[in-house]
């Protein structure tokens, strides 16, 4: 019996080539998209799963309590690790990593390379994260201060293939002993590790290490098995309010609540954390892609159901005969399900081939290293079998039910089987088309909104000019000591319009601290961004002064007693208008109230228009600009853009004069900014690609349906033509039905798309308003695509000689 | 074999109610060859479909070999059909995706007969119907007469007790039609009961008895030939 089913299935496949092609192509494309998305999502979910006992490791983070929308901070004060290890019996081990994003110069012999992503960590680092070692061992690797553990490819760059354990290496001119090499393939680790040096090497004063306010450490704890982590978290929060808060000075209370984040959540659930480090995914985008995959698969399955029920007219006779002969409904259902599963199987095979071919491109695009090998991975194989069966059964069940339910008398007696016999099928088909188009229109709107927002992120006026600004950190004692001469020499180069040295450039790290605003006899504390600038900062970035004046070298007091603030600071500090703000006093206690020498008391001399020094995810915060050479570190060189390469060559020359031992490593400021929106850029591209796939798959189905609609109504068309209808009337007649469905779909999709996209946009402090035309355009585009797809069949039907159609009856 | 009493069938559309069968009663004996005649719309096909369990009556009783079957469920109907009934249609109703051999074999597959036995049976029937040489052709490749011979072969493959023929010669020329009628007669002589719906007086003469229907009622019975059990 089985062979008979397969035989009929195969012959049907061959006989109705067009139908089979539509079905298989649609399903194969949909499945390919799903497979690729599935691989991506699976890969994203693998982070930190490889670490032994990783399920017992948690990261401590805090949420601010002062502002309305509390921000999560990835870095916490050093005392958390100490306290939790000592006072919480369920905590087995704790570990801190110093938040420090500098790039170090590593040297072995003549080889000098800047290496990013070095970690400065407690010696328990490899206890918490038991990364596999290639050379040496984790035990005692970080015990001595002058130690370093290298990542395998970093070790290779300096030592080739030999074992470097026991050899020396210079880091920023200090000698360290290589204690071990960790294996590569840590691609699923939430931290990027090129080397690890012990925290003891940083020589941080003990006083600082006992701080509850210095949020400078990524802190991890491992708890004992079967620990109720909710309880531990509650205990920790109580500890802060009951034991720590009383110790704090009145004017500087603890402004946060601590939380424990499971290790395996860090990668995907920290997208909006402040001061985080390492590669991060975004659960929103993972979810969005998963939903899109389901959408595409649904659209492909619906095609299947629609085409199969439309074609059922042709199969009706066969059903009648088989039933007459004695086939039961179950046997017929089985037959049709086998046919669907066979079609699905073919689609799956094609999609596996397609996905394998496209995977390198996806890897390239996502920077991943995914593979799926059917032979080596039984899970993937099993999943594909399950997928075939599930899709085959879902898509095949309803058509099988309808087909096997035909009454033989009806289908055998009438020479023409009319659609009217299956009224509910018509309804279902229309329902499915509406859902398909709703999904398509939803995707179209989402893709357009994401496109507009991403475009806005890249092109919004940021309040400063980010074009042609070369940007790099200073290196070496000589350069740092004589930064003024360095700056002057840079400025004299060809095509260089100005140079600024400071700390706190847009797109780069900025410092944050409190500032005191004396008001009505009271001293009010405000959290503020501190931009440590020089006299040319405003000119170099092209900031706009709305009131007051710029810093001036001629006025010696500007260095020690002057502040320029942004408009938000004027508002937040309650200084009235920008004009009224001029002359107001601000106080910065750099090392706290106990060190009066470090206090900088000065007046506001100018107000700059708000500018975006962070990404557009963040609201512009109050910012204070002041001259503070102690923190000078980064250099911004503004070029005129006439001959950039000449200007860059000049900068390199000057660099060589001041710091010949260090190679220069530079970027352009706009690159920094564009980097911030990489995730959104990718989302944008992926959305367009998959929306395209969804539309195409949907169109394949619509094309098939239009074919059958034209077929079904050919007698009607013939009669209408004999009575004098012209081609456009006929095309209109056939298209009207489908276009009506698109309109219904649009009505359903619009509000959902609006709600979802508004939610997505809420993550951005600066965002577009969703314009009305997006909806109109998506609706019109969907209707147009539907119309074009149908019109081919409609025109064909309308231009056929009517006599031919009438005679075939 | 078949006992029908007061059989009723009503077709309803939104506005019109048509009585296709109005209290029809008749008996068909084992081994009998009965022709049902009447003008178009008289209810003869409806009667045949109800006897063949392809349709359900709205009232009355129908017994097959003494068992009431009017309200059999779908599963029982399918079972009775595949074991006891064979169908021959005017439009042949062969499955276009299957070859001659596969079409004839199909009832045996549904009966769960093993492959070897199937092959043997099918070949025997095809030989008998003189269609063996075309066993691997598809229905579209055959003439009308050949197609109907295949349909008859398929109807008899499971050795049914009753063959229901719905205008079996309606789509055939007279020589092919006579051939099919001869085939049916042979089957009847071998013991199979046959009920045939026809328009053709010529074909009806092959039957032992003719039942004439008009507007859903039996109006006359003629006996052509002597029939003895």
UniProtKB/TrEMBL annotation, chain A:
Q: Which residues form the MacB-like periplasmic core domain?
A: 20-238
Give TM segment ranges: 21-42, 288-308, 332-359, 379-406, 427-452, 686-710, 738-757, 772-795
Boundaries of each ABC3 transporter permease C-terminal domain copy?
291-405, 689-802
Alphabetical GO CC annotations of the entry are: plasma membrane
Primary place of residence? Answer: membrane
Q: What is the protein's membrane topology class?
A: Multi-pass membrane protein
Q: Which UniProt keywords apply?
A: Cell membrane, Membrane, Transmembrane, Transmembrane helix
A GO molecular function held by the record: transmembrane transporter activity
Q: Which Pfam families match?
A: FtsX (PF02687), MacB_PCD (PF12704)
Q: Where in the cell is it found?
A: Cell membrane
| Superkingdom of the organism of origin | Bacteria
Q: What is this protein called?
A: ABC transporter permease
TrEMBL record, chain B:
What Pfam families does the annotation carry?
ABC_tran
Recite the UniProt keywords alphabetically: ATP-binding, Nucleotide-binding, Transport
SUPFAM superfamilies for the chain: P-loop containing nucleoside triphosphate hydrolases
Q: Which terms in the GO cellular component ontology are assigned? A: membrane protein complex; plasma membrane
> Is Manganese there in the keyword field?
no
Query: What Gene Ontology terms describe what this protein does at the molecular function level?
Result: ATP binding; ATP hydrolysis activity; transmembrane transporter activity
Gene3D superfamilies the record matches: P-loop containing nucleotide triphosphate hydrolases
Per UniProt, residues of the ABC transporter domain are: 2-229
- Name the protein family: Belongs to the ABC transporter superfamily. Macrolide exporter (TC 3.A.1.122) family.
Q: Mind telling me what this protein is named?
A: ABC transporter ATP-binding protein
């Amino acid at each position: 019996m089985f062979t008979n089913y397969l035989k009929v299935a195969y012959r049907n496949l061959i006989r109705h080539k067009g139908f089979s092609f539509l079905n298989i192509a649609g399903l194969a494309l949909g499945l390919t998209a799903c497979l690729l998305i599935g691989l991506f999502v699976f890969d994203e979910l693998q982070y930190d799963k490889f670490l032994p006992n990783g399920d017992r490791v948690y990261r401590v983070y805090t949420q601010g309590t002062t502002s309305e929308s509390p921000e999560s901070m990835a870095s916490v004060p050093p005392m958390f690790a100490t306290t939790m290890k000592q006072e919480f019996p369920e905590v087995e081990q704790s570990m801190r990593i110093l938040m420090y994003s500098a790039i170090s110069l590593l040297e072995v012999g003549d080889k000098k390379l800047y290496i990013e992503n070095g970690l400065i960590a407690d010696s328990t680092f490899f206890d918490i994260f038991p990364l596999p070692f290639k050379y040496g061992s984790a035990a005692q690797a970080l015990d001595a201060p002058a130690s370093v553990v290298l990542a395998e490819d970093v070790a290779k760059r300096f030592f080739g293939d030999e074992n470097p354990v026991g050899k020396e290496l210079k880091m920023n001119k200090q000698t360290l002993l290589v204690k071990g090499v960790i294996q590569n393939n840590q691609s699923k680790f939430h931290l990027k590790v090129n080397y690890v040096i012990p925290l003891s090497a940083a020589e941080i004063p003990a006083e600082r290490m006992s701080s509850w306010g210095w949020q400078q450490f990524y802190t991890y704890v491992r708890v004992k098995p079967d620990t109720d982590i909710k309880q531990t978290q509650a205990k920790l929060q109580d500890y802060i309010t009951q034991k720590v808060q009383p110790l704090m000075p009145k004017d500087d209370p603890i402004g946060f609540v601590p939380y424990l984040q499971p290790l395996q959540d860090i990668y995907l659930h920290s997208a909006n954390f402040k001061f985080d480090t390492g590669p991060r995914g975004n659960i929103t985008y993972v979810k969005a892609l998963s939903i899109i995959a389901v959408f595409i698969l649904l659209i492909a399955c619906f095609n299947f159901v629609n085409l199969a029920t439309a074609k059922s007219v042709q199969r009706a006779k066969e059903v009648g005969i088989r039933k007459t002969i004695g086939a039961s409904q179950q046997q017929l259902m089985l037959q049709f399900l086998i046919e669907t599963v066979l079609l699905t199987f073919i689609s799956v095979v094609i999609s596996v081939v397609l996905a394998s071919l496209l995977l390198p491109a996806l890897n390239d695009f996502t920077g991943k290293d995914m593979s799926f090998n059917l032979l080596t991975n039984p899970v993937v194989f099993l999943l594909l079998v399950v997928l075939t069966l599930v899709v085959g059964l879902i898509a095949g069940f309803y058509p099988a039910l309808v087909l096997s339910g035909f009454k033989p008398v009806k289908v055998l007696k009438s020479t023409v089987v009319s659609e009217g016999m299956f009224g509910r099928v018509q309804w279902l088909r229309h329902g499915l088309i509406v859902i398909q188009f709703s999904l398509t229109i939803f995707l179209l709107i989402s893709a357009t909104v994401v496109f507009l927002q991403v475009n806005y992120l890249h092109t919004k006026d940021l309040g400063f000019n980010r074009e042609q600004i070369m940007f790099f950190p200073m290196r070496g004692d000589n350069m740092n000591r004589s930064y003024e001469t360095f700056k002057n020499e840079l400025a004299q180069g060809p095509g260089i319009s100005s140079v600024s040295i400071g700390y706190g450039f847009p797109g780069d790290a900025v410092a944050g601290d409190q500032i005191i605003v004396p008001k009505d006899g009271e001293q009010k504390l405000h959290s503020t961004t501190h931009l440590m600038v020089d006299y040319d900062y405003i000119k170099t970035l092209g900031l706009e002064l709305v009131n007051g004046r710029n810093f001036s070298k001629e006025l010696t007091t500007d260095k020690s007693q002057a502040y320029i603030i942004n408009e938000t600071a004027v508002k937040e500090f309650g200084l009235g208008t920008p004009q009224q703000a001029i002359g107001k006093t601000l106080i910065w206690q750099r090392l706290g109230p106990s060190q009066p020498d470090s206090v900088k008391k000065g007046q506001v001399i100018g107000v700059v228009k708000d500018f975006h020094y962070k990404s557009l995810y963040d609201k512009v915060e109050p910012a204070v600009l002041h001259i503070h050479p102690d923190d000078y570190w980064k250099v911004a060189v503004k070029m005129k853009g006439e001959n950039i390469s000449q200007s860059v060559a000049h900068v390199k020359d000057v660099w060589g004069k001041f710091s010949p031992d260090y190679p220069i490593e530079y970027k352009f400021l706009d690159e920094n900014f564009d980097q911030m929106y990489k995730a959104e850029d990718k989302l944008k591209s992926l959305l367009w690609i998959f929306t395209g796939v969804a539309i195409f798959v949907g169109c394949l189905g619509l094309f098939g349906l239009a074919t059958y609609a034209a077929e079904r109504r050919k007698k009607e068309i013939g009669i209408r033509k004999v009575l004098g209808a012209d081609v456009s009337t006929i095309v209109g007649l056939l298209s009207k039905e489908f276009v009506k469905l698109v309109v219904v779909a649009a009505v359903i999709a619009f509000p959902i798309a609006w709600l979802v996209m508004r939610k997505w946009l809420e993550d951005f402090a600066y965002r577009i308003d969703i314009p009305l035309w997006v909806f109109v355009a998506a609706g019109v585009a969907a209707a147009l695509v539907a119309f074009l797809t149908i019109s081919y069949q409609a025109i064909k039907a309308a231009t056929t000689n009517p006599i031919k159609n009438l005679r075939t009856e | 074999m078949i006992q029908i009493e007061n059989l009723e069938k009503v077709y309803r559309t939104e506005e019109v109610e048509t009585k296709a069968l109005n209290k029809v009663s008749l008996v068909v004996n084992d081994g009998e060859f009965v022709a049902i005649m009447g003008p178009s719309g008289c209810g003869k096909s409806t009667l045949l479909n109800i006897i063949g369990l392809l349709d359900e009556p709205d009232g009355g009783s129908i017994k097959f070999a003494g068992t009431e079957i009017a309200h059999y469920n779908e599963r029982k109907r399918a079972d009775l059909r595949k074991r006891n009934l064979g169908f021959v249609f005017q439009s042949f109703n062969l499955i276009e995706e299957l070859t001659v051999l596969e079409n004839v074999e199909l009832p045996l597959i549904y009966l769960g007969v093993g492959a070897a036995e199937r092959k043997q049976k099918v070949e025997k029937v095809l030989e008998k119907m003189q269609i063996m040489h075309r066993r691997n052709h598809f229905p579209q490749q055959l003439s009308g007469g050949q197609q109907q011979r295949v349909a008859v072969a398929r109807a008899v493959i499971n050795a049914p007790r009753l063959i229901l023929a719905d205008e079996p010669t309606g789509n055939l020329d007279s020589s092919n039609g006579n051939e099919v009628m001869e085939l049916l007669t042979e089957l009847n002589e071998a013991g199979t009961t046959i009920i045939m719906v026809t328009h053709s007086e010529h074909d009806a003469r092959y039957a032992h008895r003719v039942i004439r229907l008009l507007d859903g009622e039996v109006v006359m019975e003629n006996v052509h030939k002597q029939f003895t059990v």
